[in-house]
Design a protein that fits this description.
This protein is mainly alpha-helical and about 110 residues long. Helix content is about 20%, strand content about 5%. Strands 1-2 form a two-stranded antiparallel ribbon.
Length: about 110
């Protein structure tokens, strides 16, 4: 619902303005490199907190009237993350890359 998304824009769940600079996966210790439950513990990890509310699909830089002025730009966010990684790390040379998430952040 648009009203629910509008409320989240005032917290870390709906805007990167509220992220801590050293943000790590919240309440999911399986994602840590030291967890015996993490089969990818020895792989490189990039944590991208989900905040767009659009299952990484939105491509809009403008607010939508029917969504109470909210901007849906999850696809643009993900494109930017991948582009930055490709230009600043060796990810372009990787033979295997896994994208994962929880809840709506795991869709898209």
């Amino acid at each position: 619902e648009p009203a629910d998304c509008a409320v989240r824009t005032g917290s870390h769940l709906g805007s990167s303005r509220f992220w801590k600079p050293d943000q790590t996966p919240e309440d999911n210790h399986m994602l840590t490199a030291v967890s015996p439950l993490n089969p990818f513990a020895n792989w490189s990890h990039v944590y991208v907190p989900y905040c767009s509310g659009d299952t990484w699909l939105g491509k809009s830089k403008e607010g939508h009237k029917v969504l109470l002025g909210l901007q849906m730009s999850g696809h643009l966010i993900l494109d930017t993350v991948v582009e930055r990684l490709a230009n600043t790390t060796g990810i372009a040379l990787a033979s295997d890359v896994i994208l994962s998430g929880t809840s709506a952040g795991g869709i898209g």
